[in-house]
Amino acid sequence: MNKAIDVFIDALPEEEKKMTIQLREIVLSINPSFEEKFAYGVPYYYLKKRVCFIWPTSIPRSGLSGGVMFGISQGVILKKKFDIIRCGTCKVVGWIQYFNSKEIKPKIIKDILVEAVIFQEMQNLNF
């Protein structure tokens, strides 16, 4: 785990902190090869490319009010299979907005992440 991200999470408001920790644990449980680093001031998770991010809405530029945004870099494509993903006017990125930790369903997040990783691996094969 990235120590700078630990510090970032510790500074969040309590409910955002709880959700961010929960989402982070789910993400890192899927693939221990995820590289965790900051982009746009929030935690992003990479394999060869960005896979997902966790954006607490208290951090500027989330575009949402309240809670935590779990973003998926290829959300538009994955939305076809997972209708929980929202895309708004975005052409590539999708997200799920959570307002409290009880809303987070680990199985759904894991299923989305597995599909996102498979999609990225297929892109890397250059079919």
Describe this structure in words.
This protein has four helices and five strands. The protein has 127 residues and is an alpha+beta fold. The protein has a single domain (3-117), classed as Aspartate Aminotransferase, domain 1 (Alpha-Beta Complex). The chain has a five-stranded antiparallel β-sheet with strand order 1-2-3-4-5. The longest helix is centred in the C-terminal third of the chain and has 19 residues, at 106-124. It is globular and about 40 Å long.
Cα(first) to Cα(last) distance is 33 Å
Count of discrete structural domains? 1
Structural class: alpha+beta
Low-pLDDT segments, ≥5 res = none
Order of strands across the main sheet: 1-2-3-4-5
Instruction: Work out the strand percent.
Output: 15-25%
CATH topology term = Aspartate Aminotransferase, domain 1
Instruction: Identify the overall geometry.
Output: globular
Question: What is the helix/strand order?
Answer: HHEEEEHEH
Instruction: Using the 3D structure, state the CATH architecture.
Output: Alpha-Beta Complex
